[in-house]
Prior knowledge:
This is PAS domain-containing protein. By secondary structure, the protein is α+β, with helices and mostly antiparallel strands.
Amino acid sequence: xxxILDKEFPLEALPADAPESACGLLEFWSDHARADALxxxxxxxxxxxxxxxEDLSIYDYHPDIDDYQLMLEGENLVALTGEVWRGAFARExxxxxxxxxxxxxxxxxxxxxxxxxxxxxLDADWHRWVRLVLPVLRKNKxxxxxFQVFLAVFQMP
Length: 157
């Protein structure tokens, strides 16, 4: 049971009134996921992601420390937080914003499925946002592949 005081809670699917951009990004991920493999960075390149590029942040997973490092931060997320967090780790963000970002990313990594959450974010007032956490694989020839997480948040109507 979720209360009005919850800052974030999991979703089984996007709500019917979710923004078209959120629905489109989740559909794009699903179209490129295969039963035996995650979408790759070849699928998730800048050209294909153009409709969502300002909404996306990309994290690299570091198994040696079991954390996710913010490598690229979408301009809309910078505007939302008012700060640039590039280079920070998910646990740092969790500590600063009292969120469960690391846990959400770990669910996406271990299940190899998107993790969807509803967020309540305080600006001048409380607003609802939907968060998509999408697992993607960056293949490196001759090197170990890197697990990445693409994160996007979209304000609900």
